[in-house]
Design goal:
alpha/beta
Length: about 270
């Protein structure tokens, strides 16, 4: 199939078996999803995990022709064509990556075996009607914050609900490492055309196992708009986790691992051809 974007996405790959495509959010890179999901899949053989950097993030370029979310989705479609082909695959997306993942589940409905969304941007993507939640620091550690480098402290405290050394470590390695190298000029260009032309939930419902995880204290995308997605995903487990913000996967790692594992169990036990 001819490529539509001619943008080669940098990616990391782990394991063998059923393909799993994991899309990170806006500004970080593939390390966010790799850090979140490898603790799950390291215990479950039989999955080939693909962690691309989206255009303008990580080591993936964003030439001038990448100027909208439609172009971002086209680059992901090309990645699927190149590295998965027509194989059935599992699909996960975090934040903005969840927006693209929902769109990909629409265009490849018969190919996607299951969909998992982590703190996803929902219908009201960056509009006046969006309903983020008030963020509260529920486990503060002023001494820890005062010990941090100013750059890390500023970035971390802008989003953290849980302040512990382990959450700081994972934020620095899995989130901030990507933020620091994002192509901000390209992202500004793309952001001007943020909405996809076709809403992800246009068309028939997605009837395979789904998972929607939201943070009760997520002041980026909230948890209410995600609830509105449920009619389109009749097989979705929808969970709002207290003591979790937009970095839910590192603030509630045990629950995150358990819920993703249960989603994988549901997919694995689906009747063939369902």
């Amino acid at each position: 199939m001819p490529q539509r974007t001619q943008v080669e996405l940098h990616f990391a790959e782990q394991g063998d078996g059923v393909p799993v495509l994991a899309l990170h959010g806006w500004e970080p890179d593939h390390r966010l999803m790799l850090g979140a999901l490898e603790p799950v899949f390291s215990r479950r053989p039989g999955y080939r995990r693909l962690y691309p950097d989206l255009p303008a993030m990580g080591q993936s370029p964003a030439p001038a022709r990448i100027a909208s979310s439609d172009d971002m989705l086209a680059a992901v479609e090309d990645f699927v064509d190149d590295h998965i082909g027509d194989q059935p695959f599992l699909l996960l997306g975090e934040s903005y990556g969840g927006y693209l993942a929902r769109a990909l589940a629409r265009t490849r409905r018969d190919q996607v075996l299951g969909l998992a969304l982590i703190c996803p941007s929902a219908r009201r993507v960056e509009t006046a009607e969006s309903r983020p939640a008030p963020r509260l620091v529920l486990r503060p550690d002023p001494a820890l914050i005062s010990s941090l480098d100013a750059h890390i402290a500023e970035a971390f405290t802008s989003v953290a609900v849980v302040e512990t050394p382990e959450v700081v470590r994972r934020f620095r390695e899995e989130v901030l490492a990507g933020l620091d190298i994002a192509d901000t000029r390209a992202l500004e260009r793309i952001r001007r055309n943020w909405q996809l032309t076709h809403e992800p939930e246009d068309g028939e419902p997605f009837t395979r196992p789904a998972l929607i995880l939201a943070g009760r204290q997520d002041d980026s995308v909230g948890y209410l708009d995600q609830f509105d997605l449920l009619p389109h995903y009749p097989r979705a487990t929808y969970v709002v986790l207290d003591t979790a913000g937009h970095n839910l996967q590192i603030e509630q790692p045990e629950l995150f691992t358990a819920l993703v594992s249960e989603w994988l169990d549901r997919i694995a036990t689906e009747p063939a051809g369902s």
